[in-house]
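User: Hey, quick favor. My workstation is busy. Could you predict this chain's structure for me?
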Amino acid sequence: MSFVAIVDYGSGNLRSAEKALARVAGSQTVAVTSDPAVIARAERIVLPGVGAFGDCMAGLGAIPGMCDALRMAVLERGVPFLGICVGMQLLAGVGREFGDHAGLDWIPGEVVRLTPSDPALKIPHMGWNELAITRAHPVLAGIGTGANFYFVHSYAMRPADPSHTLAAADYGGAFAAAVGRDNIVGVQFHPEKSQAAGLALLANFLAWRT
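Assistant: No problem, here it is.
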């Protein structure tokens, strides 16, 4: 039976993500796991993340074999991958939150602090925001520009290659709200908290064939 693995590394909105994915999974099984052997067998992988970039990378690295299992599944086997919030940010080469920390470097770029042009805009950016689709992608199919998603973040990814940005949002300046290349997609917002639009995106991810 096909199954989707949600990576449990001590950082993430695991139960909300699990419940949302289960609602749209059909015959696919959704498993929350910290076992690299399970990750290695998964047909799809979701990496959530809440907290600071360095702490999240340290959490992944603290599980023996986890980074290797992810790399082999995603980069070598081509398993469809979805990073959510800090799980998206970890795709970058470096995160600059509380110092510089190496990321997975699957989508070259850096993670930098939001600097809204309007000083009245508070950090963290928290709440609903519109997407502007910048590049068509199966995971965003049927989700037009103007759809609203729920964000909670103080930092955002800045891809080195602009073509890796799939969608942008604006908070006193544009930032990457979704990124992707090959079998890898990341979203800065929380689809599991974004009601119908978020469920549509998760359903697209579960149907995505790379």
